[in-house]
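Changelog note: in this version the structure field was regenerated for every chain. One regenerated record is shown below for reference.
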Amino acid sequence: MKRMIYAACAAATLAFAVPAIQSFADTDSPSGAQQEQGKQRREEWMQRRAEIFDARLVGFKASLSLASDQEKNWAPFETALRDAAERGPRQGPEAGEAPDGPPSPIDRMRDISKRMGERSAKLSALADAAAPLYTSLDDKQKVVFDATLRGLLRPHRFGPGGPEGRRWERRD
């Protein structure tokens, strides 16, 4: 009896698996219109993201209530902040090269290392540009600066604990 059940299950599995595999194999790559639509959506998303960032930056400056002597340090800080927040395009194969398939783990590690190095350079430049502005702020402005800058650099990233913070952080 058990052999009959196993045989029936195996036959049913094969009967459903073969058409499913063929349907996946028959799918074509996205058409030109679909690729163009995807590209247009990405461009719209990037534009909305830039508009939101600009609005947050205006609010950041307004919330600091900078004095006239502090204003001179804002422009270099804003430029460095825009550079740090900018996302470059993902790098694929070099121009003119055809992709040979998925990248190897070594290629992925090198790509990650390259992006981390670029991010590190941008954050170092931001820290250098922010230092004169931060030292000119009073204590109340420093509290606002800390909270707002953290939100600008990581706007939608919540840790495992949700918006309240990571589980392992101490909450006072």
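Spot check on this record: DSSP finds six helices and no strands in the chain. The mean pLDDT is 79.
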